[in-house]
Amino acid sequence: MAAAKTGADSGRRALEILLSFTEQRPLLTVRQLAEDLDIPVPSVHRYVALLRDMGLLEERGRGQYHLTMRVAALSRAARQATPLVDLAEPFMRELVGQTGESALLVRLVHNRPVCMHRVESAQRFRLSFEIGQHLPPLRGASARLLVASLDPADRERYVDQALAEGARPPLKGRERFLSDAERDAARGWSVSNQEIDDGIWAAAAPITEGGRTVASLSAPCPAFRLDKAKREAIIDLVRKSAADISHALGA
Known about the structure:
With 251 residues, this protein is α+β, with helices and mostly antiparallel strands.
């Protein structure tokens, strides 16, 4: 059992290294990876060597590494297996055109919120989350809506497991997070204000298929650009876009 657990931990560390590479940081050194993930440098060397042997990482020079096109192939395979992304794309682009803000599509993957797709606005504002990246499991409008899609007992297990694994706790505590998730699911929308990133407000609405929430559509916005009327308008537009995607899924 100890050997199996060690193997699982090693696999997780190797995947964490792969997920550290983003569009903003396509090149990383072993030392940068060690600092980002709080892993000893010798261990990172070992994981990087494994990923190189598997054809997932390449060295560019000066000790810098980058993802290979084999990872891109995995991304294409994921998109082929996830028709929701292709179906949601035109609705997300329409939402971005209406709000002037970016849009995110978020799903639960192995009980963790993951950014499945994003459409960026023309505004000079960059989202902090890349496609395929985990979002904080206990913070944000999307997290509450997705947690609310679980059975009550599973919601509590989700929260307790996330806390046990070191996730940032909910801003207002465990019980308030659970009650707010239930409230947001009942009304069909959720908002967050600086729960994940400073200065960012977001509205989200559930995407459903067969009466079950399968994803969340979110519009994160810099709070300084919003007044009360703009917030209410964005909530309405996000809800409509999520409903349109849900209808398309049903069709």
